[in-house]
Every structure is written in C-alpha cells, then in structure tokens.
Amino acid sequence: MASQDSFGAKSTLDVDGKSYEIFRLDAVTGDDVDVASLPFSLKVLLENLLRTEDGANITAADIRALAGWDAAAEPDKEIQFTPARVIMQDFTGVPCVVDLATMREAMADLGGDASKINPLAPAEMVIDHSVMADVFGSADAFEKNVEIEYERNRERYQFLRWGQGAFDDFKVVPPGTGIVHQVNIEHLARTVFTREVDGELLAYPDTCVGTDSHTTMVNGIGVVGWGVGGIEAEAAMLGQPVSMLIPRVVGFKLNGTLPEGSTATDLVLTITEMVRKHGVVGKFVEFYGPGVAALPLANRATIGNMSPEFGSTIAVFPIDEETTNYLRLTGRSEEQVALVEAYAKEQGLWLDPAAEPRFSEYLELDLSTVVPSIAGPKRPQDRIEVTKAAGNFAEDVKTYAKDVNAKVPVTLADGTSFELENGAVTIASITSCTNTSNPSVMIGAALLAKKAVEKGLTRKPWVKTTLAPGSQVVSDYYAKAGLTEYLDKLGFNLVGYGCVTCIGNSGPLIPEVSAAVNENDMAVVSVLSGNRNFEGRISPDIKMNYLASPPLVVAYSIAGNMNVDLFNDALGQDQDGNDVFLKDIWPTPAEVEETIRGAINKEMFGESYKDVFAGDERWRSLPTPAGNVFEWDEKSTYVRKAPYFEGMPAEPTPVTDISGARVLLKLGDSVTTDHISPAGAIKKDSPAGQYLTENGVQLRDFNSYGSRRGNHEVMIRGTFANIRLRNQIAPGTEGGFTRDFTQADAPVSFVYDASVNYQAAGIPLVVLAGKEYGSGSSRDWAAKGTSLLGVKVVIAESYERIHRSNLIGMGVIPLQFPAGENADSLGLTGEETFSVEGITALNEGVTPKTVKVTATKADGTVVAFDGVVRIDTPGEANYYRNGGIMQYVLRNLLKG
Fold this sequence. Notes:
With 896 residues, the chain is of the alpha/beta class. Among the domains are: 10-69, no CATH class; 376-600, Aconitase, domain 3, CATH 3.30.499; 658-895, Aconitase, domain 4 (Alpha-Beta Barrel), CATH 3.20.19.10. It has 31 helices and 34 strands. The strands form eleven sheets. It has a seven-stranded mixed beta barrel with strand order 26-29-30-31-34-33-32. Strands 6-5-4-9-10 form a five-stranded parallel β-sheet, sandwiched between helices. Strands 14-13-12-15 form a four-stranded parallel β-sheet. Strand 30 (791-796), helix 29 (801-809) and strand 31 (813-816) form a beta-alpha-beta unit. Helix 15 crosses helix 21. The longest helix is centred in the N-terminal third of the chain and has 26 residues, at 141-166. The protein is globular, with a radius of gyration of 27 Å. The two termini are 16 Å apart.
C-alpha cells in the first residue's frame, strides 16, 4: 500500500462503532482542482492513486493531474491503476493458471524465488464456460450435461483444484454454480472493499479487472471494473498495476421510465446502438440523471454488461439506495451494507440525481421512447425494431441463403414431419450473463410460457430450446413462483448454470434438422438472450443469429421462424382453434412485479452462496495433485506447459526492425476475437482436429477450443480457424486458409501449416486488417495464437481496446494505416514483401509516433507509408521491449 501521503489524505471513518482507515478525496485541493464535480469513475481512480502513492509508479504529480482533469482534453497522461481484485472464468482462467505455473518454473530456472509467483491481489475464478447443451428438452438434461461436463473436463478441473491449493489468495467457484458475472454481482463483489494492512483496517472502493470482457456487469453496482486479457490479469494478480491513460468520460443522461411492453433488453440494445454510433472506444461511459434513480439494479447490471458491445472501457452507475437495497437482498451483511452507504456518502460517491458532473461528451435518452427490439444477424449493435424484424430478415436472408424459397421435408426420429424453411429458429436459448441475472425479464419469460401453455401453444418441433440461468437463485424463484413446469412444457428445461449458447456451447442441433441444413446449405437462425451473435460463434450450422429478451426468445420458439411478424401474425391456435397473438400472452409489468415480490427473498441468496467454494460431491471427490510446482503430463491434450519463457534471458534483447515479412492474412472490417481464436466446436479435418486425432482423442471427445485453452498446441492450430473467416489473399475460401508463399505458385493451405513453413524459413509475418480489428471478447488467445504463429506486426485501420493491448502484451506491434487509408486504397493485395523501419527507437526509450512501412510487389513496385504506432503508454513500451508483459513481470520479480 501507500508509502507516501503527499496530500495528508489518510483519515478514519467510523461506522457503527467500527473504525476504518480511508483516503479522503477532498484532501486534494488547488486552484485548478474541483474534485466534487469529477465523474464518479474518476473519483474512484483518484482514491486508488491516493492510497497507492509511492513516489515512483504513482506520484503526487499523477494525483494532481487526475484531480485537475480537463474534461475537454484528449487523453495523454498515463496513470497506474491497482485493482482491488481479479476475477476470471475458466476458459481464460485455465491458461492464466498454466502461465503462472510455467512462470514458477521459469523463475527457478533463472535462479529466482519461485514462491514470488503468487497472487498479491485476491483472485477468484468461476467455472461457467464449460457446460454444453448436449441434452435438452428433458427433466434430466441438467444432470446429464453436468455428468458429460465432468467427463470432458476432468483434467482441467483437477488442474484448477491444484491451483487452488498451490497459490495463495486464489479461490475457485466450482461448476454448476452460475455465470461468473452474475456470481460476481450477487456474491463476490463488495462495492466497498476492506483489507487489513499493517494492522490497520482499510476501506476503499471495490475495483476489479476480469478475464472476460463482460466483467463490466459489475459496473451496475457501483464497482469500477473492466475486462482485460488473461495476460494482463496475470500481471495484476502478481501486483503489476494496470497502465492506462486518464480517459475521456462520456456522460449518459437518463430521463423518464420504460413504457409497458419494453424490457431491459430493449433498453440495452437501444443504448448499444446509440453509443456505438457516437464512438466510445477507449472511453468511460457513466450514467447519471433522474432516470438512473428509477432504474432497477438488475437493469443497470444489464446495461453495464453490454459495455464491450458499446466499445467503451466501462459503463458505470454511481452508488445509491438501489445499490444498497440490492446488496441487502443478495445476502450481504448489514455491516457491509452500512459501510457501503457511509463510505459512499463520505467520499462523494453517492448518486445525486439532480447533479450534473463534468463530462467530456454527453448523450441523453428518454426511457419512455424505448421500443421492443432485437439485434442481428451478426452484430449486437445492429438493432432492429421487432415491428420491422420480419421485413429486415427477408432482405438479409438473400445474403445467406442459396435458394431463398427452399423448403426441405424433414422427419424426426419420433415420426414428426415438417418442411424446414430458411429463417427457421433452430435454437431458442435463454442464456448468458446479460439477461439471466435480471428477474424482470426472466420472470417475464416464464409468465409468457405459462400463458402460452394455458392457451395450448407449443414450440415448433425443429427448435432446440434451452434454459441456462446465471445462478441457482433463478431456479429457486421459478420454483417458488410455480413457473418451472410451464417452461419445461415448452422444452425450456434447465440445461446448466453457465454461458452455454452465448459462448458457443449450444451443443448439436436436432440431428435431422442439422442434416437438412447442411445438405441443402440453408440459412437457419438462432435467437438467444445473449450479448454476442458474431458469425460462427453460436453453432457451425447456423449462419444468422439474433439477440432478444428472454420473453421474445420464448415467443420465437413458438413462432418458429424469423419471417413471422410477432406483433401482427398469429403465433398459433388455442384449443378451440382461435388465433393466439403475442399480445394475448405478453405479461403486464404489474404481473411481473407481483410475481417478483412473492418469489424472491434474501434467504434464497444466502442458501445458494453459503458454501460457494466447496462444490458438489463430484468436485470434492476429484483426485487433486499436490505440491507448489505442477507435474506436467506430456500426454495431456488439455494442459501443457506454456512455451513463452523457453530460452528467455534475464535481460531483454534489443528490439529490431522487421524485413522480408510476408502477409499471413488480409482481412476486412469488424474482424472479432472469435474470428481470430474461436471458442466453439473443433472440426475434424482442421489442424486442431488432426492434432487431437493423432493424439488418440475421439471426435465425440474433441470438446471446444475454449475448453482446450490450456494446451497451446491446440490453440496455435485453432488461431484464425473460424469457419466464417474470409482471408482475402485466398479468395473463394472460408475458414482458416491462406496462401503459402514459401512454395512455388503459393498454393492455398491451412494458416497453421503455412506458418510452420514460414517460421522454418525464418520469415516474419504480417496481418493486414480493416476497422475495429479484434472487437468482441477479451480473448488473450487471439493475441497469444497470433504471436505463436510468427506474426510480428498487425496493420489495421482501427483496433478494439483490449485486443490492441493484448498484441503488445505478446510482443506483436500494432500499427494503424494513415488516417483515411487502408490496404485497398494503398493498392496492397497481400502478395507483397513487407519491411518496417523505426521500431528500434524503442531501444532508446523513445516510442516513435510512426514507423516507415514498405511493401514491395513481385515486379519490384514499392508502396511506402507511415504506419501509426499504437503503443499508447510508456508501460506498453516496456512490455514490447521485453517481448511481452509476462516476460516484463517475470524479470521485475527476479530483480526484486
């Protein structure tokens, strides 16, 4: 903690007879300082600097710069932010623990103390990304899916249990508990953190970084936290502050209340569209105004969750009575609730609905204007009003279907026959963290199911229906309200507590439907209550994916096709043959509220979380390896020793310019981290599938890329292997293909196979891309895989925040084309040989603003341009000089 206190900020706060040491924000004064009018989020950062001031990383000048923040200025001042804790999910958490285990060995190899590789900040992991919806529509679906989950992931889970014992301050929430972000807001988040340091009990704002981009869900309860790549999270766990520029803060004013018929999902899709259009990449978004006070906590959490879809770093709500009411409801102690209220009011962190803080930019929304919406067919920001959904689909399907009017006869195993059409809803899933934490939409979906069943409606036979709540509490309140049976009757049986469909763990479609889709190249759809609908993410069989509220998911399962106009077409007929419309079964806000009041109580949360780290019998009975150093199994296809530190010297070698480089991929706009490093199914004939087959793994046991992130051999082969990726230097292909210029005539080959040849020939590689490169999940393997393929530089028109920093964290330099230029405007085809000059300035401690990029064509023609260097902070420059963030941290710990 702080070794200096230049402003005399250290003070005490007494709450109900208990004394806490705090660092007062109003201690920072001066002519250019107005701490009271700072945005809530910057006040939290200011406290962080006051408390961690050490005269070296954090100085009095840093504190003055933040306290005297100029709202209009472009960010140029770097600060070091020290999060209170780190939160992880298992897809990104397993490679984190693999890296930490490998770092222990590397530290010992370099003659250092291996025990220094240990979390210095509390780290908590929730296993929520591994359960798949293999079984659905039956009473035993949950039990069977959990059983299969343990069979598939036994090695990973044993490894995580080893980590829980080997590392201090590292806790694991076992499978079957809930989704990481919902567990975070319902149990793990403190809002105000306490920790004993040197005999004093400190109180300070709860802050966190997480290995999932939707960590921002915790913004809904007044916690400043955001998603980072796994490599940055590891550094934070090891005490390395997060290097950042003091950001611009966008104030988003809310007025009014939501109208009847509109849900939190409709609101968040409206905000996503607005904020994306405004442009907030790298900025903080903060909500204020009279509409905030009227917004239930669950709706705030839903909005915070979608921050990555906005492009912002955070989307935060200040603390108020709604926050403390929620903390009380979810089982936090009265002592904790009292501390949160007292601390927030003392430090000026309590919401004043009438206040107008200073912001860099402003947006405003009247909640009463929000209308029912969905988003799709491939991006969350592409909002469609439900009244226009059928018409939009009719246009969009022309891009995806070979024969728009195709009708394919299908007969299921039980004898049911039907004609499958384009637009058929083949997955309807209530899933993901965004909505399943929100009682209003979850109860709304269940009440709609009840009314539908009572009218005699059923789901269409081609629809795979799944229910994956964010925590066990949802099942408890469904049961208490007597609603479970109605969801079950429509096929929305519980399949698991986890991300499931939203992360690509949707499991297989109904087999006969899948066969019809693939044999006839049909454009069928999924409808899910998630936050991500990128191409190839939900299911390899499905080309078009739509985000919708849980009630609309249920409605679409009954309608059965995206060409149905939900507001004007009948969903079906009742027992008497009368048409039933959506308005006939849509629950009123009063019905929803009355059900919530009668079904949800504090005791439910207390019961669900009373022994949250213990797990069930399956978890407790797993044989667990012991010892501080992990014994790697060379035969494992799940957990392998990471290669990042092999041959690493104690001092970094100078960085060099790049010459003779070849283009591995030339890509368009909106290439996501899913395109770069998919999380879903592994195809048998892909390089990763071939590797698993060669290592004796049967196809049924391939599992997913996400579950195998602890094995770099699988993940390198899976990099750029998304089935929907389009590499422009291999035209006519879709998937992980490129051309290999080490061979005569540059034949088309797998990306991985070409990279092996390039690396054997000593040829560095380049990726060319368009706008918003690396949008989507905070997926460290998108950068790790890029680096391990031999890519040294990425040149894009623009980057999403997390992926840009992850590339630097893996020793890959991100460059931008000059403003207004791109690969096509410069005449680049991807067949050129590239050189990059000027990188060596970093060896002198200087980060160049631009470097000279030269592309030489086969006929000797040269295209030269100034590439903008996107190493944005001195901290990032240090990482790049060291070959990556992990190498930088390891060398620092070795010296210390």
